[in-house]
Amino acid sequence: MAGPVAGQPAIRLREVSKTFAGAQRVQALGAVTFDVAQGEFTSVLGPSGCGKSTLLRIIAGLISPDGGASVEVMGHPQSAPSDDVGVVFQTHNLLPWLTVEKNIRLAAEVRRLPAAEIERRVASILPVLRLDGFRRAYPHQLSGGMRQRAALGQILVLLPQVLLLDEPFGALDALTRDQLNVELLRLWQELRKTVLLVTHSIPEAVFLSDRVLVMSDRPGRVIEDVPIELPRPRDPQATKERPEFARYVIHLQKLMGVA
Amino acid sequence: MKWREIVEPAIVFVLLALLWEKAVAIFGIKRYLLPPLSEVLATLWQGRAMILREAWITSGEIVLGYFWAILAGLLLGLGIFAWPTMRRTLYPLIVLFQGLPKVALAPLLVIWFGYGLTSKVLMAFLFAFFPVVVATLGGLAGTPDHLLEHFRAIRASPMTTFVRLRIPAALPSILDGCKTAMPLAVIGAIVGEFVASEHGLGHLILEANANAKTDLLFAALIAISILAGVLYVLVELAAKRVWWRAL
Prior knowledge:
Number of domains of chain B: 2
CATH architecture of the domain at 10-75 and 188-259 in chain A: 3-Layer(aba) Sandwich
Oligomer: heterodimer
Number of strands of chain A: 10
Strand content of chain A: 15-25%
Radius of gyration of chain B: 22 Å
Largest interface: A-B, 21 and 18 residues
CATH architecture of the largest domain in chain B: Orthogonal Bundle
């Protein structure tokens, strides 16, 4: 596997658009151009149906963009899935017939990593995700929050540099969601990954990100790039009480036409 | 809670048995039409050695036919799913064949394979195999898209995806097909025995009928339902090992 190219952005998109052919042609994504620096936490904010998920799938190499687009991840063109990128979706991808531990091992086994290496990775991931006591539990025995953490583990086992998160906590209740967002920040700081998060929650995007990209209605385009200059580490209470926090939220609400 | 699952059906069972026994006496039903239950049970007990022997023969036919039905059903389902050519050519034929009343095939099977075991095994097989094919196909085609995408994301080969995702995801459906197939295999074997045979519970029914031994006929019916019940429970127990349902 090729390593990261020094000085390159983690994600580099140029004129990425996507039109779905079918009974009627639907342009899901306009020409999207942006970079995400290595180690940066970026959120993509937009109304539903604006092509956010399509954008993530393109970056993950799961679908290909229209001709003329350029997609690079860690300095390499991304035309097929690679171990550099891991995606977590709102619907978790845990296999119900496997335990948490076996679900986490799965990707590494599929990639035919040496057994000792798989063992080592799983042993380091379980405590980070606070799933130590649940390695032998099956997905249906877990709470929604634990399931999403296990789903993160399924991806982390391949040690991707870039994490693409498509509303991973979107189906959870507000309280669990806040807790998981705090854990996500801790994880991001510990593992030093690049994170691109798709969400439609404005406070969530502000609280977590270094930068928020606002997308327009379909066909989705980036209409504004908002750097979030709140100090880190961020505390869930203190950060949200800061006057700048409210200002960012209001600014983004205006952009999205909800205020 | 467990005791209710045993006691409640047992009470209903006993009540129905009493109703049978008393109704025959009260309404003066002729014994060749409906013998009292006590008489049927007595016949069942007296003839137990013979009935067990016949039941053993019928079970053999059922189990063999069922085994081949599962094997062929699985292979056909896999094949039709994996090879478009097979889907185009073989699948319509199987569906068409399924429309045939299989009872009508029994005389032909006797001409081809004689009075013995083979024709009955084939009848059990013919009755049982189709639900397995359909369930296998449905299960394999029903793999959730988001899991398939996940396997693409982790760069699993088609073979790995088949073995580690499609097959386990299809198992609940396949086992439903196997459960449906079990009683059908019983019907198949009995129908086979009806058409031409020298042994088995189906043959016993015909013989009892010919000799106006209605009590023996009922005894044979009871034996068949016990046999079918036991076989179904065995399949159900085996199917319990696949406990994942909704994905």
